[in-house]
């Protein structure tokens, strides 16, 4: 090691991942896809297994002062299931590792696991292993999920083609707005512990933050309708950032339309109350765990009437850039602000 | 959640794992084996995949004041490979998640990854994914390893039969003794930073602690000799504790012989210097990552001349208990002290 010191902040989280990935060489033929998508893909007989993992730390990814333990357990599973969904695969197994400080009682661990087991039940995954250890600082949760698919069913980030239609499920921005509300009420509480948090009227957005759903319902529906998205990713870092990932991996551009972006009324109203631009929340809010995908035009008629799939734009040539047409008809360049922990 | 508060220390790490495992229901036929062995087993065409995961935290599992980052990276991979080996499977892929505090520079991350990549190269595994995030406190490393085997090649903890021979590879106790030396020299250094740590003459034991090897060499040799152990486990928590796991899972007892237990001369001498009983180090020292396994008597002749496999005892009926015959011929009950982080 030389004496040079480069701060991680200088290259950022994605920069660090790119930097580390450069040195990785794939040797086994059975490794069909390594780093660079929502999950890795390995051969398994006539099917493939998809594998994804997430590391969640107290104080970075969650705050136990407002995240109820059962919700946290559910969310930790859901975010991994969401990555399996984003490959168009079906989650089957998870491993769950936790590190606990001694302020955790057995009852608290049970509360956390009640959420983990509820999510395992809900998404039909088996908890097959894990590790349980002590922590000198906060709670750490590491989950690995394994899914199953036929090879031809997989959707990668890299398959979007010019003229494909860009689709997104559900609505966006709610989880970010919910987080702002939870943080605001936490500050109020810290300033005056006798104040009761004001969460009435914010259930939807706080629910989006505290107990998100992975959109497995959509994956099952796509299978029934025999639609395989040409590309797919889950919205964990914000719509704009995910569009950039698809464009980069597929070598394409994109144009989306502001008036097509799905936002819930409570998200919109709360954003305004918080002096946040609702469209910025939709474009750059993280943790919605909706699915962003592209379909071939021939599949449009199959999805056209789906109440929870929104058609927000189309795929263009790379040289056309990544654009948004605003409600007033102005064309602006998208910026991928993303979600920074460093 | 009721108001009752049970400390984790009251039930211990194994107690907590048992408590949490009770509530887990396996639903998929493709989950062949869940919690309770060195790794889980899932169906994958005509082969099976074995899956294991480990969570390592700074201040609990390692101390960066004496663990060089490349060694730490190597060890983090090796301990997972060792769990795959303990199933008699071949590791193929790993995911690597790390959480980094801002005192880590990009160069430090590179040093850690140089060890991870060296181990991946050494054990022939592909790094297929992971997660990289910030940590508010220390370094966290979470690795999941996936291995491959034919179903009939697997060795579980549960297959030991009465009259099987108990085998252990390499030598034991070194990693514990090495840790004591590293801790001693750290205290000397903390008391007087101008003192240079005295590690001459302790290279073997400190190496056992800092950069252990997973015994994949043995797994490959067993395959060549067409020996499938009737049961197997890796020695991560100490020989006695691992023997208890095999006895419990197999419903058997065991008798081992003190004079057959393998100990390296440096381990022995250093233990004596540290006023530790060498046999206690062998029985209860953790982190040696050797393989403990049982074989059918018919396979003994195939392994008899192997220089690095030691025949330390035999399997008995459960009601005969777990015994050690000392050098003086006395029969004592084994105690599984294990390795406690809580």
From TrEMBL, chains A, B:
Keywords of this entry: ATP-binding, Kinase, Magnesium, Metal-binding, Nucleotide-binding, Thiamine biosynthesis, Transferase
Broad EC category: transferase
Gene3D superfamilies named in the record: PurM-like C-terminal domain (3.90.650.10), PurM-like, N-terminal domain (3.30.1330.10)
Binding locations of Mg(2+) 4: 38, 52, 83
Binding, Mg(2+) 1: 53-54, 131
Location of the PurM-like N-terminal domain: 36-147
Biological process (GO), any one: thiamine biosynthetic process
Binding-site list for ATP: 113, 130-131, 157, 236
NCBIfam families registered for this protein in UniProt: thiL (TIGR01379)
Misc. remarks from the entry: Reaction mechanism of ThiL seems to utilize a direct, inline transfer of the gamma-phosphate of ATP to TMP rather than a phosphorylated enzyme intermediate.
Protein name: Thiamine-monophosphate kinase
